[in-house]
Amino acid sequence: MMTASAPPDPLEPKDEAPHSPWRSPAECAGITVVVVDRQTVLTLPVDRLVHLAQITLQSQAVPHALVTIYLVDDRQSQALNRRLLQHDWPTDVITSVIAQAEPDAPRSQPIEAELFISTETAARQAAEHHATAWDEVGRYLVHGLLHLLGHDDANEFDAQRMRQEETRMLRAAGWLTTQPATDPSCASQTP
Question: Is the pTM value of this prediction over 0.85?
């Protein structure tokens, strides 16, 4: 996971249309999540992605946020990674902070961010992790949001704590069960 400070222009290059158009934003108690699907690797239920983002942000005491999730392929991920972080390879998730409160400020200030998730990387890494591509996408989403909120995985101890928090969020949203949550609304579902 990489964090970038400068907001990217996710719609470049403009020579290709997104796989599916901008989705209407879903709002829940001050948390707005927009999903933009620019890939053709996986078919993902957008409402479940929105629900997972909302549950994660609510559980971390974030009252106000605007998060845009871009689902991209490896080519798009590599272009963003090269432009934003000077790394010339695709990556699982890139978090781009547009507006965020100072580290010591109360969480009442709004957060605005974009997450770029490579579904192609998720599909490839799923087999290595004995998971589904869907599980990987969910983990990348939570991982990116936790980085946005100041969690770090720079050392083994912090990485393990972050992984445990990711798993807790995924379970709270019904993501890691054989019977997924059927109600994507966020009311009263904070763990």
Answer: no
